[in-house]
Amino acid sequence: MDKKLSRRNVLGIGAAALAGGVALLGKQGQANTHMGGTSSYQPLAGQPKPANRPHWEKSYSGGPIDVKPLPPVLPGKGYKPVAVPNGGALPFKVIDGVKVFHLIAEEVDHFFDTGLRAKCWGFNGRVNSTVIEAVEGERVRIYVTNKLGVSTSIHWHGFYLPNGMDGVGGLTQPYIMPGETVKYEWTLRQHGTLMYHAHHDEMTQMGMGMVGMFVVHPRNPAPEHSVERDFALLLSEWVIEAGTARPNTLKMNDANILTINGKVFPSTAPLICKTGDKLRLRVGNLSAMSHHPLHIHGHHFRITATDGEAIPLSAQWPETTALIGVGQTRDLQLIADAPGDWALHCHMTHHVMNQMGHQFPNLVGIKDGGLDEKLRPLLPAYMTMGQDGMDMGRMAELMPMPKNTISMKGKTGPFGDYISMGGMMTVLKVRDQLRSYDEDPGWYKHPAGTVALRASAADMSRDGIEMDKPVEDRS
Ligand SMILES: [Cu+2]
Q1: Ligand 1 centroid vs 347 CA: distance in angstroms?
Q2: How far, in Å, from the CA of 345 to the mean position of ligand 1?
């Protein structure tokens, strides 16, 4: 080593090299794969300059409490808006350089799936599926009008903000009383997949549906951030007892309706993409009591960000199932390179069911001895349920159901058989040819010879497959 290079010099060179590496990720030397990038924000007059700490220490608070905002960015100009299956983005206007939103908390007569509606609480006419979207560095002003009959407050989940904007009823602000409108305002010093929800009488208000996602796009995105399709998916759970018209938020367990953006399969809109598209699934979980291991078929994804921060490339790991804990978000990125209809669902089997699947005795393996036929003269619509999935799935079609209920599972699929899932499930539709991302391309048409069908006698004979005799090990 050159004698002139003192220890201090070496450290300086190391720091410069590090800074150079960071600068490669975005303009202005911001560490854009990370939340924050606080070094580029200037504190407003009167505030102390932040100490020059390493990035990791800064990430706990985001730096100064208030900073000079950066100019607002419009969708399609500086960022690609997220796709919200079964939902949409909250509109905004720009007033004097500030993005102004108006969130309205109100009762919504919500459609979960054919057969089930309930009076829920949501925002701007939607339940679980009104996404607020903005860009790092922007100043946002969010008016919240309370059209409910009870007091509330709204918390901005995962945000760096002044304490008085944090929205915890009674702790950081007075309640928003019925009929009142409250103003929240702060400058976004971070980017990522974040959320918002009622933070007053939490069990009731979040259980009634007062939850949503808040996506903050990076101002100077890293190259690996760019995707063709960017989906926002919010997971939640409900207790809606058969025949009732309101969620029962007093039940701690026994959620019987499991939703993605407020819908159960098959009413969950499919995620539509072209073969080779890079996707990001921004998944949040604001269920009352359940963590959800979200599982994808036919692909692997990488977990690229949490609600806390983006994960550096070197620390991302591949998965087919990501556990989304209550109050967490995860960004999952994948290349949709396999054409087909791929299930994307919570891997807890009771979470791909609806109301009527949970409340029967276990009848697997029973011989019903013609019970149905014997009982039908007395109870014309009687059907023994639970011996196999098909009975349960078709129940809704074959016999009268209690008012306002749905059967435990989905719908008839492309082969005429029932798809034996409902609840927290959707379909990733990957197609070589696509007219539009907004148009459901229908069921996948499998190339000849690529579907698991009944084996022919010729196949079985050729391969020595006998029904009563396993193949002998001839290796
Ligand atoms: Cu689940």
Answers
A1: 6
A2: 8
Ligand 1 centroid distance, CA of 293 (Å): 6
Distance (Å) from CA 295 to ligand 1 centroid: 10
320: left (phi > 0), else alpha (psi -120 to 50), else beta? alpha
Number of other residues whose CB lies within 10 A of the CB of residue 10: 12
Distance CA 291, CA 349 (A): 13
Each residue's pLDDT tens digit, 282-320 = 999 999 999 999 999 999 999 999 998 889 899 999 999
C-alpha 33 to ligand 1 mean position (Å): 29
What is the distance in A from the centroid of ligand 1 to the CA of 87? 20
Distance 237 CA to ligand 1 centre (A): 8
**348: CA distance to ligand 1 center in Å?**
5
Q: Which residue has the tokens 């939340």?
A: 35
**Rounded distance from Cα 423 to ligand 1 centre (Å):** 9
Q: Is the per-residue pLDDT at 444 higher than 70?
A: yes
Q: What is the pLDDT of residue 397?
A: 56
CA 56 – ligand 1 centroid, Å: 32
C-alpha 325 – ligand 1 centre gap (Å): 10
Q: What is the pLDDT of residue 16?
A: 36
Tell me how far the alpha carbon of residue 305 lies from the centroid of ligand 1, in angstroms. 20
Tens digits of residue pLDDT in 112-159: 998 889 999 999 999 999 999 999 999 999 999 999 999 999 999 999
Ligand 1 center to residue 251 CA distance, Å?
Answer: 17
Compute the distance from residue 350 Cα to the ligand 1 centre, in Å: 8
> What's the predicted TM-score (pTM) here?
0.84
Nearest to 154 by CA among 190, 194, 125: 194
Given pLDDT bands bounded at 50, 70 and 90, which one contains residue 6? very low
- pLDDT category at 186 given cuts 50, 70, 90 is very high
